[in-house]
């Protein structure tokens, strides 16, 4: 008995091989499985007595907590997160309404003869703030407050006598105080 010559993927040829009767090529030899593996492969997937029809996928109904398959603690945490988010949105809305009142009162006191259309444009822009822009403004405000706090600490240290000869950078930092305060006021009113 012979195995015919075959062509390899690279184009070369394998020689014809002579084999004994009952020879099985390596690719066709079954993988060895011990008794333990054979037992579990032959074992049915379902528990004894359970019919396959009973295991048909049932559409899960949502429990009262919302998400399916969550533990009590996870459901409780979801409720807490939702409540916190709602309170945060409520707080942002209140802060926005307060700043709108300040802006509208400030505009009417400063420019009594301004046309109505120019007043409506800033309030319309403030009614629907972009979340990314709001977080960016909050970051800038936080950063400016930090810088002002550093300037105040530096000034207190100089007044207390801890720093007798302030460096050039320290004097520049003290000189920027008014500009930082103005920028912070503009940002806070712009919220």
Automatic annotation (TrEMBL):
Pfam family, one: Mago-bind
Comp. bias (Basic and acidic residues): 85-101
Biological processes per GO annotation: exon-exon junction complex disassembly
SUPFAM superfamilies in the cross-refs: Pym (Within the bgcn gene intron protein, WIBG), N-terminal domain
Biased composition (Low complexity): 108-125
Parts of the chain that traverse the membrane: none
WIBG Mago-binding domain: residues covered: 1-25
GO molecular function, one term: RNA binding
Coiled-coil regions, chain positions: none
Biased composition (Basic residues): 73-84
Cellular-component GO terms for this entry: cytoplasm; exon-exon junction complex
Region (Disordered): 42-138
InterPro entries for the chain: PYM1, WIBG_mago-bd, WIBG_N_sf
Similarity comment text for this entry: Belongs to the pym family.
Subunit organization: Interacts (via N-terminus) with magoh and rbm8a; the interaction is direct. Associates (eIF2A-like region) with the 40S ribosomal subunit and the 48S preinitiation complex.
Record-given protein name: Partner of Y14 and mago
Source organism per UniProt: Camelus dromedarius (Dromedary)
């Amino acid at each position: 008995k012979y195995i015919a010559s075959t062509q390899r993927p690279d184009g070369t040829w394998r020689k014809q091989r002579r084999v004994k009767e009952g020879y099985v090529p390596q690719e066709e030899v079954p993988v060895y499985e011990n008794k333990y593996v054979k037992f579990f492969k032959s074992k049915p997937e379902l528990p004894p007595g359970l019919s396959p029809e009973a295991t048909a996928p049932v559409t899960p109904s949502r429990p009262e907590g919302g998400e399916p398959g969550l533990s009590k603690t996870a459901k409780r945490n979801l409720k807490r997160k939702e409540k916190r988010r709602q309170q945060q949105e409520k707080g942002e809305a209140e802060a926005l309404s307060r700043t709108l009142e300040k802006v509208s009162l400030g505009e009417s006191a400063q420019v009594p003869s301004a046309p109505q259309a120019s007043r409506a444009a800033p309030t319309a822009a403030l009614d629907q703030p972009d979340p990314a822009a709001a977080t960016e403004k909050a970051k800038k405000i936080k950063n400016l407050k930090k810088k002002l706090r550093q300037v105040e600490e530096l000034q207190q240290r100089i007044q207390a006598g801890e720093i007798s000869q302030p460096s050039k950078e320290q004097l520049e930092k003290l000189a920027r105080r008014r500009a930082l305060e103005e920028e912070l006021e503009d940002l806070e009113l712009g919220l």
